[in-house]
Write a structure and sequence with these properties.
Blueprint (H helix, E strand, L loop, with lengths): L1 E34 L2 E31 L6 E22 L6 H9 L7 H24 L3
Antiparallel strand pairs: 1-2, 2-3
Length: about 140
């Protein structure tokens, strides 16, 4: 007999970390002036504060696998298999003049906040490595039978 039992698991523990960067870009056209009928750009410095947010949703568990002797109902062998899945989303926003940002920072701001997967999807993801290790364990154990 084989008994599979989750000794522990948690779904959807969240962590959010913010990284703040002060951005300054010099020699940016900030206005125009008219000199003798000709439109001349005025250059200056632009500033922005860029905030990049790393959102993580952590799901993990521990599966206990027991092989039981059918005659005396005692465990023959027992193993525990851990698994973890971390879903990560990176998004950002800024305060100030967008022209101070790099193209990469602008793209991260454009993406916006992403919704995490459902609890069911998170459960499936953290159990994938557990499943693989459990199958390997059982295959190796029963290989001699």
């Amino acid at each position: 007999t084989i008994i599979l039992d989750f000794a522990d698991f948690s779904i959807g523990n969240t962590r959010e970390t913010k990284y703040i960067t002060d951005c300054i870009r010099d020699s940016v056209i900030i206005d125009y002036t008219n000199i003798r009928g000709e439109r001349i750009p005025i250059y200056g410095t632009v500033r922005a504060q860029y905030i990049e947010v790393h959102s993580e949703v952590v799901s993990a568990g521990l599966l206990e696998v027991k092989i039981i002797n059918n005659k005396n109902k005692q465990p023959i062998i027992q193993r525990r298999f851990p698994g973890e899945y971390v879903w990560i989303s990176v998004w950002g926003y800024y305060v100030g003049d967008m022209r101070a940002l790099t193209p990469e920072q602008i793209e991260v701001c454009r993406l916006g906040r992403e919704l995490p997967p459902s609890d069911q999807e998170l459960f499936v993801e953290f159990t994938k490595p557990i499943y693989n290790r459990t199958i390997d364990f059982l295959t190796n154990y029963y290989y001699n039978y």
